[in-house]
Amino acid sequence: MAITHRQLFLDHLAKTSDAPLALEIEKAEHIYLYDDQGKSYMDLISGIAVSNVGHRHPKVIAAIKNQLDAYMHLMVYGEYIQSPQVKLAAALVKSTQSSRLNQVYFTNSGTEAVEGAMKLAKRYTGRTEVISCFQAYHGATQGALSLAGDENFKNSFRPLLPDIRHIRHGNVDDLAQITHKTAAIVIEIIGGESGVRLATKSYFQALKKRCLETGCLLIIDEIQTGFGRTGTFWAFQAMDIEPDILLSAKGMGGGMPIGAFMAPEEIMQSLTVRPVLGHITTFGGHPVSCAASLATLETIFEEHLLDDVEKKSQLFKSLLIHPKIKEVRGIGLMLAVEMDSFQTVKAVIDACIEQGLITDWFLFCDYSIRIAPPLVITEEEIKIACNVLLQAIQKVTSKN
Question: Fewer C-beta within 10 Å: the chain N or C terminus?
Answer without folding.
Answer: N
